[in-house]
UniProtKB/TrEMBL annotation:
Keywords, alphabetical: ATP-binding, Isoprene biosynthesis, Kinase, Nucleotide-binding, Transferase
Designated name of the protein: 4-diphosphocytidyl-2-C-methyl-D-erythritol kinase
Functional pathway: Isoprenoid biosynthesis; isopentenyl diphosphate biosynthesis via DXP pathway; isopentenyl diphosphate from 1-deoxy-D-xylulose 5-phosphate: step 3/6
GO terms under biological process: isopentenyl diphosphate biosynthetic process, methylerythritol 4-phosphate pathway; terpenoid biosynthetic process
Length: 313
């Protein structure tokens, strides 16, 4: 039986608005999610015993049942026990290129790759919608990671509307190696500080969602207006992360001082990205800010915006 090698891209958040809280304890969001070319490679190899093994070349990524890739495989085994009985278990090998705990959905995209890979390996023929429903059971960002590209995401982040592709823009990303921001902490702190601004009534929620659907950044994306996209980048979680982590604020200001289209923290951070017109400009900005901040704990990456989610390598 053949093995599958999958490319699993990271995402950035071009827009993240927290609209309200939800009865399930999560937050109601309106986001624009964007795949980038920085990606992990996920290999899926069938093995004879009915077990799931995960290995990863990054010390901070767990090899046990808490790995999101493991959780994706366990969910597939539970949903399709006859497939596991027929084809055996699976060994998942993650070549980690996406920085960990960075707000770039590294674990989510690995889990999405496992869902797509097992669908192929076990010849299940699941539809995009079926894969997304399974993905939403593991994490809010995982449904997006399957198809990727540029999408408006509402609900917990799992209700997706595709937008036009923006694949000729570049991005420079930077992150302090030793800094991690907990996603639950970021949302909880936001709720404590800004919960009084939340929309509580269903009809208000609907109109807020509608406002984002027809709002500035979505129209700028539909028109592929690069300058406007850059100006309209937004992330509510910056309101709690930047005051708490001055080094992230400093990085954000360093990018803003360059001639970039726009800059923003991605997701719950602490990665900060800046959109640029070209790969060359992204490399130049990385070099300038690296020299300016001269901090050995700071890592930089450059990438392109990408129109693809999980693909075969
Ligand atoms: C902040 C974002 C923005 O894209 O990304 P990351 O920074 O993680 O990449 C996402 O909302 C993270 O998505 P994901 O990491 O899949 O979240 P989950 O595993 O479902 O939830 C992790 C925790 O985040 C909080 N959470 C997440 C999503 C949401 N709509 N409301 C929440 O309050 C909850 O505290 C939850 O326990
Ligand atoms: N396959 C995986 N890749 C990365 N991290 C993982 C994975 N599985 C579980 N984790 C755990 O999830 C946490 C969040 O990591 P990650 O998904 O990279 O970031 P984020 O949620 O900020 O986008 C990490 O601290 C790590 O321990």
């Amino acid at each position: 039986m053949r093995s599958y090698s999958l490319i699993a891209p990271a995402k950035i958040n071009l827009y993240l608005e927290i609209i309200g809280d939800r009865p399930d304890g999560y937050h109601e969001l309106a986001m624009v999610l964007q795949s980038i070319s920085l990606a992990d490679k996920v290999d899926i190899r069938p093995i004879e015993i009915d077990t799931i093994f995960v290995q990863c070349n990054h010390a901070a990524v767990p090899n046990d049942q808490t790995n999101l890739a493991y959780r994706a495989a366990a969910l597939m085994a539970q949903q399709f026990p006859e497939a596991m009985a027929q084809y055996g278990g699976v060994e998942i090998t993650i070549d980690k290129q996406i920085p960990v705990a960075a707000g770039l959905a590294g674990g989510s995209t690995d889990a999405a790759a496992v869902l797509v890979g097992l669908d192929l390996l076990w010849k299940l023929g699941l539809t995009q919608g079926e894969l997304e429903d399974l993905a939403a059971q593991i994490g809010s960002d995982i449904p997006f990671c399957i198809k990727g590209g540029t999408a408006l995401a509402t609900g917990r982040g799992e209700v997706l509307s595709p937008l036009v592709n923006l694949d000729n823009l570049s991005v420079v990303l930077a992150k302090y190696r030793s800094l991690a921001i907990s996603t639950p902490w970021a949302y909880k702190t936001y709720r404590t500080q800004f919960g009084d601004t939340y929309v509580r009534k269903a009809e208000d929620l609907q109109s807020r969602r509608q406002r984002v659907h027809s709002g500035g950044i979505v129209s700028a994306i539909m028109q592929r207006d690069r300058a406007k996209i850059g100006q309209l980048l937004h992330n509510d979680l910056e309101k709690v992360a930047l005051p708490e982590y001055p080094e992230v604020l400093q990085l954000r200001e360093a990018f803003a001082s360059q001639n970039v289209l726009g800059t923003m923290m991605s997701g719950s951070g602490p990665t900060v990205f800046a959109l640029t017109e070209s790969e060359r400009q992204a490399l130049e900005v990385a070099e300038t800010v690296r020299n300016q901040l001269a901090n050995p704990d700071l890592d930089f990456w450059t990438a392109q915006l990408s129109s693809t989610g999980i693909t075969l390598a």
